[in-house]
TrEMBL record, chains A, B:
The protein's name: cysteine desulfurase
Pfam families: Aminotran_5
Family from the record: Belongs to the class-V pyridoxal-phosphate-dependent aminotransferase family. Csd subfamily.
Catalyzed reaction equations: (sulfur carrier)-H + L-cysteine = (sulfur carrier)-SH + L-alanine
EC numbers: 2.8.1.7
One Gene Ontology MF term: pyridoxal phosphate binding
Cofactor: pyridoxal 5'-phosphate
InterPro entries on file: Aminotrans_V_dom, Aminotrans_V_PyrdxlP_BS, Cys_dSase_SufS, Cysteine_dSase, PyrdxlP-dep_Trfase, PyrdxlP-dep_Trfase_major, PyrdxlP-dep_Trfase_small
GO biological process: cysteine metabolic process
Transferase is among the record's keywords: yes
Domain Aminotransferase class V: 26-400
Automatic annotation (TrEMBL), chains C, D:
All residue ranges annotated as the NIF system FeS cluster assembly NifU N-terminal domain in the record: 7-127
Gene Ontology BP terms: iron-sulfur cluster assembly
Protein name, as recorded: Unannotated protein
One MF term in the entry's GO annotations: iron-sulfur cluster binding
Species annotation: freshwater metagenome
Amino acid sequence: MSFDVAAIRRDFPIFERTVRGGKKLIYLDSGATSQKPETVIEAESNFYRSHNAAVHRGAHQLAEEATDAYEGAREKVANFLGAKSEEIVFTKSATESINLIAYSMSNAPSGSRFALTSQDRIVVTEMEHHANLIPWQQLASRSGAKISWFEVLPNGRLDLDSINAVISEDTKVVAITHQSNVLGTINPLEEIVARAHAVGAVVVLDACQSVPHMPIDVKKLGVDFLVFSGHKAVGPTGVGVLWSNQLEDLPPFLFGGSMIENVTMESATWAPAPKRFEAGVPNMAQAVGLGAALDFLSKIGMDNIFHHEMALTKYFLEKLQEIPTLKIVGPLDLENRGSCISFTVGEIHPHDLGQYLDSQGIAVRTGHHCAWPLTRKLGVPATTRASLYLYNQEAECDLLVSGIVNAQKYFA
Amino acid sequence: MSFDVAAIRRDFPIFERTVRGGKKLIYLDSGATSQKPETVIEAESNFYRSHNAAVHRGAHQLAEEATDAYEGAREKVANFLGAKSEEIVFTKSATESINLIAYSMSNAPSGSRFALTSQDRIVVTEMEHHANLIPWQQLASRSGAKISWFEVLPNGRLDLDSINAVISEDTKVVAITHQSNVLGTINPLEEIVARAHAVGAVVVLDACQSVPHMPIDVKKLGVDFLVFSGHKAVGPTGVGVLWSNQLEDLPPFLFGGSMIENVTMESATWAPAPKRFEAGVPNMAQAVGLGAALDFLSKIGMDNIFHHEMALTKYFLEKLQEIPTLKIVGPLDLENRGSCISFTVGEIHPHDLGQYLDSQGIAVRTGHHCAWPLTRKLGVPATTRASLYLYNQEAECDLLVSGIVNAQKYFA
Amino acid sequence: MELDTLYQEVILDHYKHPLNKGLSGTYDVQVHHINPSCGDEITLNLTVRESKIQSITWDGVGCSISQASVSIVSDLLLDKSLDEAGAITEQFIELMHSKGTKEGDPLVLEDAVAMAGVSKFPARIKCALLGWMAYRDAADRIKQSQDSVDERGGSQ
Amino acid sequence: MELDTLYQEVILDHYKHPLNKGLSGTYDVQVHHINPSCGDEITLNLTVRESKIQSITWDGVGCSISQASVSIVSDLLLDKSLDEAGAITEQFIELMHSKGTKEGDPLVLEDAVAMAGVSKFPARIKCALLGWMAYRDAADRIKQSQDSVDERGGSQ
Ligand SMILES: Cc1ncc(COP(=O)(O)O)c(C=O)c1O
Ligand SMILES: Cc1ncc(COP(=O)(O)O)c(C=O)c1O
């Protein structure tokens, strides 16, 4: 197979360092944030070193170059998603992207298809990250709309039996994650999108854990909005994406420079999308870095990355389950399942387990993973999560397993 | 004098490049965005190369280092402003900072001192950047509050004679720029803050054009909120600051991970400030870069930078006014005046002038500078702006002057 | 000098001696367009007789590129049918987005080919398009009102 | 091994054999505290007699550090006056923020000095403080209710 993990790892400078007194870094926390290849770091640096100027605002050469670099990055994101450039908005993060949608809906004039009232309903799921839950709770409380949700079954899948009851006729928004950052569950969009559209609701897809890990074509997904964060896709921090093919109908969110058509002391009118949603001097270097990140991923191939992760996930699931008292929290089958692997180990608290693993150079995440309602539903105080990416390899699983076994001895 | 411009310029890699076929870069557009010293570029790169992990979220060593770096940057910002760490919120830009305040006020429960009603008034000035105007127009339209403003006199100063009428008893917010990004005017805060506080209003200071250019101590200013952008202060793009010593009373703006205290499917409660205002994985590398930027500026000394710019401004104002038909738009005296220098030149349209200067390697900005109501008030369609910073020097003024003279010939 | 590819003689001529500047007292449609990135504004009057453009007059403030561009529009499209004028407009827009790779057909675009160099200066494309966008908007409005006349006619 | 500076014997002992775990049926004040970054929760009952702490009982789930810490609190503060307990609490908080530069006074903090190593693991300081913060909150509430009794007394 052409997937050369060793070569890929050499592109990531962080793997040259060691942790905790000379230990090799075993990074199993890409679900929180991914590491960055040198080309991404250089793309950002190079923007500052050679092309830095405010985009869209100057007639001078640097401003032209900066604008080309920034708009070029928008085109890369669009191509990566199978979308058009004007459907791409740069935000600071997926969190901002979702808040943007929810606030812009609040800004929609009554009568607009995006304006919610107390007659309307917003549907989420029990496995949402706080970022795709609280903005909707707040929109509900601003608008008077009701909030409902799909429950999560013990096997880590959504309970879709009740789909026609949950997505009721009064539903205006269905906000759902593509892949759970705790369970690894990949949700069946086709059925949900069909039902949502049948009742005239828009679907907002939290693709934070899918865009970095699998080929995505927004046209095929059929959703109305999609968001992801650059930093989880080997890109810089401080940049996120909002995609929609319905931006023209949505009022703006942040107000300021470059998003206007006309301004007087008392009122203002707006530029067309996507500019309407990008007030102020944007996160130019970070957008450019994200463009380089998507180039990096595309060169390796999203299909290849997906298959690599699937093979790894299979290996991790099998090996981890050989540990007595270790319980996987999430689907055990590989069908519609990504590489976020959460588990509990007997009576050891995840914080203690994570700390022990850290002392061995193994970076995992512990806690509720910003999906507290899900953790509660699962009936555990917290879980330990190993989340994988293109640079992980089987040997790291073996170290994780022996780390867990040794932790059991340590805390016995 | 110890201020060594040549040495400072060597710290900025962009000055090694040329523009428009080998011409030396004369960068007079720092009011739009500043150039970046190598230490800032390296600080961001170094974060990615060696310490990258999600802050506040992991028990592993990288997460600890990332948290230290990020919180260390917060401390640097606090020290730079004479503030406390917990008074500093990282945003993506000044634009976001101002929108944060305006939206958070909308989120305040009725009865809160931050909740506006149709009985209340918001005061701005005619010289505001769109970023410190439109968010308040929108808050006014959401809350029913009225909007009033200080007028700008022909000499480029605020008309403060009417201060007691403009800041009336019903005023809740006074949003004002510290230094105009068009006129260079530095506004007299003492009088405005005193009147605002006398009627119980909070003062929001747009310090985008002051924090990078002069020593600032928030305690001495006496304002309630202050915002600025990193990218105008030799820092990275994608990071801004909100300072306030009253964050505890303000509800959150963006909702998501890491800003919560408790979350259920139906509602959530909030962490204390500043975390309450930083939802999601933050712009870590950019915050760290901003910390390095403020270190860089502090090492040179904000007093020294201010004096350097003042001397330069004096030189520019004098030399420019030797050009017949050139009219400075803004104060001609140096008292309370910064280094944003806007002007018109006879009948030449600023766009054409800017284009000609660009062909000579000189980067200025032309247009309304995101202060369209001000441009209209001044009775000009647009202006040309030279905005200076620590790396500019007198020789660049001479080139600007001869560029303008040659442009006059070109378009004659 | 690269600047001269932007500021062709023809452009500076139109700028210094603009054609059809000054608004006619009568018109079929009047539109007001604005360039939000720099504040340039123009008002344009369009009069059509028997599906042919009878007059385009305009007024406004702006840079040499935008002023020359409106001047050219107001002259070039005269006596053309709305369909012909629409096709010319599309050719011009295409030229502007060519990033310097096209020269433009002088038989169709006449003086407007002098604008070809603008396509290499992305920040100025909007200036060059200001007059054309105003014309297109005005023509669309005339077509809409005709359509609604036709429809009303048809439904009787 | 650095890990052992965090997980001292004393801590693991308290974790495995927690003191005063299980909520008393009666109490003066009950508080519920939560660590939002990891989801750990404890409930703590405080009973005070004649300005001395008569009992601290608790229940909850959490990591070894947080569990050991509550166990230590519930034992160490027993029979202390609220003022003494407050002073000990402040010393402990100071120790936690010392980044490994302090050892803690064993005469005052007793078993709690075993927590000194936690101060080198910033992500765990909140775990070590969970029990102390719950105690401080409970004590504050008792003091407030006393103050309001005193005030009412004084105003008569
Ligand atoms: C006075 C002033 N306020 C606000 C802003 C907005 O800053 P940013 O675009 O970085 O958010 C700017 C700069 O564009 C400015 O000069
Ligand atoms: C599923 C999911 N949604 C949303 C987010 C929020 O992303 P960010 O913190 O980058 O805004 C995350 C990551 O934390 C996530 O995993």
